[in-house]
Input
Amino acid sequence: MDVVSADTLRELASADGGHRVSIYMPTRRFSPDAVAENGRRLKNLLREARSRLVSLGLRPGEADAVLKPAVALSADRPFWLEARDGLALFVDGGLRAFRLPVAFEEAVWVGTRFRIRPLLAAPRADERFYILSLSLKRPRLLLGTPEGVRELAVEEMPAGLADALKWDDFEKRSLQFHTGTAAARGGRRPAVFHGSGEPDPKEEILRYFRGIDRVLVERLDKGVPVVLAAVEYLVPLYREASALPSLAPEAVVGSPDGMTDAEIHARALEIARGVYDRDLKAALDRTVQQWASARVVAEPAALVAAAVESRVDALFIAEGAEVWGTLRNGSSAPEVHPVRMPGDEDLLDLAAALTLRANGSVHSLDPRHMPLNEAAVAYLRY
Output
């Protein structure tokens, strides 16, 4: 499965120098004629890329060497059998290919950097989440991404309520045995406590859930949302027992044993996206609240200059927005042009690449969600 993560974006953004080709194209999923059609479309775009490389001064043979891996891919039938809605290719003598559920607009870019902005629209593998499928008979831990789920083996986790209580009772009996033995040697009898003798169902479930939670607190990656999937009455009990800091506020309510993994994934994905959307909204709210401060920049030249200086913590870019200009060597202040001129590059794509290289975050937003309808806004580290 082809996936895009923050590391993927950072790696592509960090590649600089030489001749680099970025190709985006829509693709058709498998059908009798889709393989041939997708291959033909890519060949046409590769011819355009070759022409641009030659116009930049490469000999035809040198251009062919740069594009060779992508040319081979155009005739790779097994590759096209797994086509999704779009393809993103990054070629520099080597090849990175991503078949993704995004119908990219057809485009060829040739320069010293890869063009990464269209890739920001792809589902992110690092926007992952856990699903804790809770039942009294069989708890399961699943790892979810936008593409699907897989079950994780957690050997230390109780196999069910009966298993948790068995081991809990064994530990109590063991402790009582050792306490009694030690007391006998000293000539004193162990203390005996009397109660009703009737088990408390709620307390038993809480003991079971605490046993699960202790393991998860130690094992799960911090900051990754955990979505509960359980019948309604178990959800508040687990929340009472849990010390997980990233437990999602909503849950998949219903018997997980009666749902397929695909059904659980679809419902948990919506909840996890809500968590990530809240994080993004919080970042946007912070930006708007500090709009008048020096920490927020929207003027394109100042924004790019801040990115050059590695000062951008979060960058928000409107989908489809472009700012054309050039950045001279040794300068952090770009020349911004009202229209695209020969030799220009999209300065917003440049700012995105520089921000990712400096471990900042970049968000591509619907223009309707941009702060104050700006084309791009940066929240600075200092």
Summary: Residues 170-196 have pLDDT under 50 and may be disordered. The longest helix spans residues 261-289. The first strand starts at residue 16 and ends at 26.
